Amino acid sequence: MGLLDGKVAIITGAGHGIGRGHALELARHGAKVVVNDLGGSVRGEGQGRAADETVALIEKRGGTAVADYSDVGDHEQCGALIKRAIDAFGRLDILVNNAGIVRDAAIWNMPPEDFDAVIRVHVRGTWSTCHHAARYWRAAAKSGETVHGRIINTTSGAGLGGNFGQTSYAAAKAAIVAITQTLAMELYRSGVTVNAVGPSGLTRITASIPGMGDSFEPDAVADDEWHAMDPSNSSPLVAWLASDEADHVTGQVIRSIEDRIIWMQGWKERKVIAAGQKRWDATKLSEVINQDLFETRAPGMRF
Ligand SMILES: NC(=O)c1ccc[n+]([C@@H]2O[C@H](COP(=O)([O-])OP(=O)(O)OC[C@H]3O[C@@H](n4cnc5c(N)ncnc54)[C@H](O)[C@@H]3O)[C@@H](O)[C@H]2O)c1
Predict the structure, then answer these.
(1) Which of 10, 11, 12, 16 to mutate to test the pocket of ligand 1 (most atoms within 8 A of CB)?
(2) Where are the alpha helices (DSSP H) in 201-251?
């Protein structure tokens, strides 16, 4: 009995890299998979049929999958993507939002169109698929069905602490955490959990960063071989989150780096300083803040 037998999953951006790893892993555990991928470049230009390659790999290994070439940045196409799963396999249980692009540059060199393109794919793409899937699961829950819906979004270290040259990508990945936490609240009563994973691996995206090394696809590494930067190293975590065993896990951000699962804890209060039932006086703030928070006057930055 597979962990995901009888489940139907959509994985966006599953033609390459980390998404392909998720698709292979979910299929291996018994899920029927809709492999979505627009098939463009790492910058999000053009389109192609990368999804077909992942479908062929799944079928070669005895699994069941169909390809879908929708652009997740387009709200209507996201609706059609959800419908594709229902038309092909009769239902939807798991939505993995993984599609992504990068257009890195320091802010003074970043054209506004590049900022918008990155936000469109990551933020609108995640929001739009969630919107359509939420409507489907809420209707099912309201009609008395027991729902074990799963949304697994994709964030990154850039969204959790910033990264030089990635204002667009970091903003997008932080927004995905906010979407995840909010949807966890909105959808739990309908039987849907919503979590975010922060994966790692040498993919087309990392290959676009100087010095990171060449990318390779997940199927280049045999299932019983270990490679620290295999793009599918986070896929077992995604398969578990997708299963009924993780019914109680929602609103979480979990990084998966090499062989480590890193459970994040979000923003925590570092220090609370009260003025004492009155407004603060700006001219007094230096004294109290430097004394309590910056004893050495070191800048409050982390590099
Ligand atoms: N590689 C890493 O170390 C790393 C680290 C943290 C987060 N991530 C995230 O993991 C996800 C997968 O990235 P990857 O590293 O595997 O890169 P990748 O380029 O190999 O895969 C991304 C896939 O998304 C697809 N895609 C892009 N725009 C799309 C659109 N509009 N509609 C549908 N599909 C679209 C691409 O065609 C591509 O196949 C991304 O969200 C990325 O931000 C990657």
Answers:
(1) 16
(2) 204-207, 235-242
